[in-house]
Amino acid sequence: MVRRMFTCLLGVFLTMPAVWPVLAMQPAPQEEFKPFTGVPPEQQIPAAPLVIGAYAFFLLLMMFYLWTIWRRIGKVEADMRALERRTGGSK
Amino acid sequence: MKKAFVPLAIVTAAMFAYAPIGIGRVQLESTMLLVQKIFYFHFATWMALTAAICVCGIASLVYLFKGSALADWYGVASAELVVIFGVFGLFSGSLWGRKAWGVWWQWDPRVTMATMLVLVFLGYLMVRKYGGPGSEKLAAAMGIFGAATAPFVYKSTDWWRNIHPPTSVVRTLGEKFPAAWDLVLFCSVAFLLLFVVTLLARVRLEALRAELDRLYLAAEE
Predict the structure, then answer these.
(1) What are the extents of the domains in chain B?
(2) Which CA distances in Å does B60 have to A17, A89, B63, B84?
(3) Angle formed by the axes of helices B109-130 and B135-159, nearest 10°
(4) Which residue has the higher pLDDT, B83 or A34?
(5) A63, B58, B102, B143: most buried, per Cβ within 10 A?
(6) Residue B76 sits at the chain A interface (C-beta within 8 Å)
(7) What are A69-87's pLDDT values in tens digits?
(8) pTM
(9) Residue B144 near residue B124 (C-beta atoms within 8 A)
(10) Rounded-to-integer distance, Cα A33 and Cα B32, Å
(11) Is any Cβ of chain A less than 8 angstroms from the Cβ of B207?
C-alpha cells in the first residue's frame, strides 16, 4: 500500500515539469476595457438574451426577496395583534 | 433610521429606474461588445456583497464578544443579503461567461472561491434556522470566518493565473473608458443604497420578532 502511494507520488512529481509548458500556454488575462463604436449586428444578437436575462433575473430576485421580507413582517405583526387581543381579552 | 428609510427607498428606486437607461446608452466595449453591459450590475452586486460581508463580520464579532442583540440582528440580516447578492453575482457572471468564455461555468479560482463564500453564508443561515438553542453564537463564528475569506476571494484573480479578469480591469476603467466608469460608480451607489434599505427592513423584522418573543413571555407570566 505504502509502496503504491510512493509510486503515485513519484509519478506526480515526475510529470509536474511536463505541466509547466501547458500552464505557460494559457492566454494572458485581459488587463483593461477599451471603448468601441460600430457594432456588427451579428455580434449583438447572441448577447442580447444573456444581458436581458441577467437584468430580468435581478429584478425578479429582488422583487421576490422584498416580498418575503414584507410577508414575514406582516406575519409577525399579525401574531402580535392576535396576542394583544388574547391578553386584552383575558384581563 | 426610521425617518431615513422612506427617502432612502425612494432614491434607490429612482436610481434603479434610471440605471437601465444609462446602461442602454453607454458606449460598447471593444472586445466583448454587448455582453459587457452585464458588468454594470455584476460589479455593483459584488460591491453590495462586500458591504454586507463587512457588516456581518463586524456584527458577528460584536455579538460574540458583547452579546448585543442588535448586533445579532444586523449579523443575520446582512448574511441573508450576502446570499442574495452572491446568487445574483454568480448568475450574472455565468451568463457573461457563456458569451465571453463559451461556457456557463468555469472552475476558475475567483468563481470557485466566490461560490464557497456564498455557501459559507448559506451555512450561517442554515445554522441559525436549524441549529437550535445557542445557534446564534455558532453562526456568528461562521460570519467572522466568512468575512475573513473575503479578501482572499478579492485577490484570487491576481494571485492565481486564471480566466477571470484581474482587479486591474476595474482600476484602469476610469482612465480607459470614462463613460463606463461613471456608470459603474452610479450602479455601485444604487446597489449600496439597496443594501442599506433592505438591511434596515430586515433588521426591523428581527426587532419585531424579538418584541413578539418578549410579549409571549410577558403573557405567560
Answers:
(1) 38-220
(2) 45, 41, 5, 19
(3) 180
(4) B83
(5) B143
(6) no
(7) 999 999 999 999 998 888 8
(8) 0.82
(9) no
(10) 9
(11) no
